[in-house]
Amino acid sequence: MVSTQLFFILGCYIIFGRISNLEYVALYIISFIVAGYAIIKGKEASGHLAKQDCKNRLTYAIHIMLLWIVTVILYMPCELFLTNASEYPMNFWVFIGILLAEGFTILIAYVGLSTVFFSDRQFNVFYTGLFAFTVIGYIQTMILNGELYVLDGSTQTWGVGQMVINGAVWLALIVIIFYFKMKYKEKCHRVYKGICIYICLIQLFIGVFLFATAESLNTDESVLTSEGLLELHEKDNVLVFILDFYDSQVVEQICAEDESFFEELEDFIYYPNTASRYAFTASSLPYLLTGVEAQSTEQISDTSYWQYAYDNSTFLQEIAGKGYNVGIYTEMRYVGNSARDVISNYAPKGEKDYFVLGFIDIMNKSSKYK
Predict the structure, then answer these.
(1) What is the pLDDT of residues 4-62, one digit of tens each?
(2) Neighbouring C-alpha atoms within 13 Å toward the C-beta of 262
(3) How far lies 111's CA from each of 121, 123, 126, 264, in Å?
(4) CA distance 33 to 40
(5) Separation of alpha carbons 335 and 218, rounded Å
(6) Tens digits of per-residue pLDDT, 70-128?
(7) Cβ neighbours, 10 Å, residue 115
(8) Please, which of 26, 242, 278, 342 could form a disulfide with 283 given CB 3.0 to 4.6 Å?
(9) What is the H or E stretch that residue 347 is in?
(10) How far apart are the C-alpha atoms of 127 and 133, rounded to whole Å?
């Protein structure tokens, strides 16, 4: 009974990445502890421990779990981080520390619980299925996916023909993996473990290469705080609201439907024809805050434009020189080093907020997306 419950719970977490209902989990943890104590004391008739070679179980389970951990928990998220470091709220060492802690916890929990509680059939089905899921997922990433959209919230779509082909490949490979496992059990153990080691080494090698060639590890601890965000001077204030990814047609439509919608902003001036010179936020904000254009498209693509714009502008310094308190409330990466001294809400070191469990969930989903 316990082994069956555990089989489905561990399987669900692998597939969905979470188990909701805290009370539900707590109840089963208690049942695992009680059942484990009964097995050790010989009070349960299943005899799982007496019939299984724990050493063989451990080596087989560890290889497959490490493949899953390296592929889903470590490699894919690290690839995303090292190619988009500025998008993350922590530096690389904190990032990899969180992932390693997650991976180590899952490795110990899954290998330990499955070795002790699973029957022969459950153990073989679970780990052969996990092996098939991970290996075929890796093949899907390398070969079958085709071109993926940028992770900007857009819905990824595939044609019916491609989905049929992918589904047929998945089904065929799953059948082949289980067939050889049932027919050539011991030989398959060695082959499958070898495949696990091979794929892990490939991903670790690529990960090291990405680390060595990464432009940034996001180790800058400086932040733009929210200090003064809702404060106004008792005399003179200049407030500039810049709406990112916003079409002026939306404002026109709102005004047409409800003329009183913007009455509370009647003291502000709306400029309907303003637009930045560049399409993306990362280049647009430095331009809007400096008025300095990039020298070339290459300067934008390698991000050196951000520093160049602030280094060749005195706009913010001149405002500060007039006695104004300059506050900029955006992401730190959009502000060049030369302008930081005049920004009132700049802090050379500050805490960056993020929810660890939510972060882990997003990283796991990103891996499965790819």
Answers:
(1) 556 556 666 666 565 555 545 654 665 566 555 555 555 444 444 444 467 788 888 89
(2) 15
(3) 16, 10, 11, 61
(4) 11
(5) 14
(6) 998 898 888 888 887 777 777 888 889 989 998 999 899 888 888 877 777 888 888 88
(7) 20
(8) 278
(9) strand 346-347
(10) 10
